[in-house]
DNA sequence: CGTCAATGTGGACATCGTACACAAGGTGTT
DNA sequence: AACACCTTGTGTACGATGTCCACATTGACG
């Protein structure tokens, strides 16, 4: 009654799974509203718990945000894996490796556009490195998808296959993921935040194709 | 006395240039602390004015932030122009055009690393598009450097020269800036925010070189 | 010199993150 | 079964923030 949205009154004094519930509610907030829509009081409100309860599971709002970011990264990786899985089997190993890279890139871009809030959250740091503390929160930076690989690792594996199939000279392999990831990530960011925001879906597709062609040439 | 940092007590009742002063103070805050270090009250404090005074020049905190972002974008463009100007004159027009693109990219990356706060602010939107209002603040998205060109336009011009010099087939020109910008922007973001943060300066240079090589191949 | 629009001030309010002390409820020992 | 203890949630409180409203000060223009 008193609570606004889906905040059922719990009958037990203990919640049982508060930590996860908070992350889940946070993800909902982040989904439409980006990282700084995660306001601690609102998160706890949704779970039906008093604000301070969150402090039993997270040091502060930033810690909660980090956990949410981790979850968002995992969803990214999952989306990319899904795209991989949907790929029809190809006989030519070279073709196959190329297709996988394109699929990963497409999954990345699609996720960014389908879930800009999650995507922004996944790569937001504005709050974690607090101004020259230098700590940079060097924790495990990557969150893994169902397959156990992070987005970055997925890309790395695909590039390895590209080398193995003979399509990419081994001496070009080192650092290749930096280039590919940079290009894809850059387009994603420019599309949802930057000056390319507001492009028509057709143009977005064109830009995506153009980008992937250039990536293939440039690797 | 009462004010903490550099907040001189003004003798005139009117400030005379409050709007600019606020933007300037905001830039200082953004410089170490990123976009959400721009706290309206702190900004006005630094200028030596009461918080509400800002509302005579900006509709709200977001409007101030937009102005600051514009200024940061201008500084980015300026940094790129500087890099261009420092380029030794080349006789071969093809070489020259390539050098200019590399210089622009280098300027972009250098600026991002030298002024991560400004850079983040320049491309932050988390607050301007308020959740499905759809307005996306379609104002003049670009801020111009001393030369009167935005970062994007600088790149476009360099690419035009590349075509004119014959190094780039005209049919590859359309959309080329999307690719180049994406790659450079992506690396910049990954370097200062993303998982590539914390790379050693040497590695950063390597990644930068690698990226620019790939870009040249891929354009 | 008087009026008026522009600009800055003062005070108030709701909301936020978070600290501190306390309550409720499991868990393990005896 | 009784008890102490540790974990987890509650209540209250404080300082800070963005923004609203009414008022004060000022320069420009008649």
UniProtKB/TrEMBL annotation, chains A, B:
Protein name, UniProt field: TetR/AcrR family transcriptional regulator
Protein keywords: DNA-binding, Transcription, Transcription regulation
Organism field: Streptomyces lanatus
Family matches, as PROSITE patterns: HTH_TETR_2
HTH tetR-type domain segment(s): 16-76
Entry superkingdom: Bacteria
Pfam family for this entry, one: TetR_C_33
InterPro entries named in the record: Homeodomain-like_sf, HTH-type_TetR-like_transc_reg, HTH_TetR, MT1864/Rv1816-like_C, Tet_transcr_reg_TetR-rel_C_sf
DNA-binding region residue numbers: 39-58
């Amino acid at each position: 009654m008193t609570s606004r949205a889906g905040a059922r009154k719990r009958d037990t004094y203990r919640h049982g799974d508060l930590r996860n519930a908070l992350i889940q509610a946070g993800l909902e907030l982040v989904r439409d509203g980006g990282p700084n829509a995660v306001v601690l009081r609102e998160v706890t409100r949704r779970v039906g718990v008093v604000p301070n309860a969150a402090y039993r599971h997270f040091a502060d709002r930033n810690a909660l945000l980090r956990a949410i970011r981790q979850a968002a990264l995992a969803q990214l990786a999952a989306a990319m894996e899904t795209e991989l899985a949907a790929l029809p089997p190809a006989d030519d190993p070279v073709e196959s490796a190329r297709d996988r890279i394109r699929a990963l890139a497409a999954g990345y871009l699609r996720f960014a556009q389908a879930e800009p809030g999650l995507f922004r959250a996944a790569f937001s740091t504005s709050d974690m490195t607090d101004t020259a503390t230098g700590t940079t929160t060097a924790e495990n930076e990557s969150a893994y998808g169902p397959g156990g690989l992070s987005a970055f690792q997925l890309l790395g594996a695909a590039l390895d296959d590209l080398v193995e199939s003979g399509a990419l000279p081994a001496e070009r392999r080192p650092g290749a993921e930096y280039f590919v990831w940079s290009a894809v990530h850059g387009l994603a960011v420019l599309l949802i935040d930057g000056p390319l925001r507001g492009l028509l879906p057709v143009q977005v597709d064109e830009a995506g194709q153009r980008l992937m062609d250039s990536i293939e040439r440039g690797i």
